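Private note to self, pasted from the team thread so I don't lose it. Backbone tokens:
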């Protein structure tokens, strides 16, 4: 089940990036919902939100180490961790692999979703892999604060 989820998440990420390359690269920003959701093409050679630009090799190595670490943990503890945690970890792996594919194949990550949040804050351009990692980080915080260590039915 988790392998299927992983494949679906990575496929969504890669297909949407391909569509962005075809339809947005070298073109003007596309406004979907004014001041809330725009599509624009960005080549990000750094980390999340464009920090640490031009560190592709470093992020490739770190991503591989982190993914293998999470996979090792999931295999080692597969009988001791619940669905909530497994789902969160699969989302992290899918996001990491989605962006890793770009780094290895292109030398940068394709970002294309932009939200100025109603004009209140210019949020950095991102992609589905970034959404997976961000949402899974939130889920992991919820897990650590409210679920971990409690007697919860799996």
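Design output:
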């Amino acid at each position: 089940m988790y392998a299927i989820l992983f494949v679906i998440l990575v496929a969504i990420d890669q297909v949407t990036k391909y569509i962005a390359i075809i339809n947005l690269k070298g073109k003007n920003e596309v406004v979907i919902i004014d001041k809330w959701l725009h599509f624009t093409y960005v080549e990000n050679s750094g980390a999340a939100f464009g920090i640490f630009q031009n560190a592709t090799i470093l992020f490739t190595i770190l991503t591989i180490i982190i993914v293998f670490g999470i996979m090792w943990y999931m295999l080692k503890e597969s009988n001791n961790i619940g669905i909530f945690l497994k789902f969160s970890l699969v989302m992290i792996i899918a996001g990491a692999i989605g962006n890793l594919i770009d780094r290895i194949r292109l030398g940068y990550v394709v970002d294309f979703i932009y939200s100025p949040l109603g004009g209140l804050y210019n949020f950095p351009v991102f992609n589905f892999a970034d959404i997976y990692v961000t949402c899974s980080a939130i889920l992991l915080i919820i897990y650590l604060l409210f679920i971990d260590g409690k007697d919860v039915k799996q």
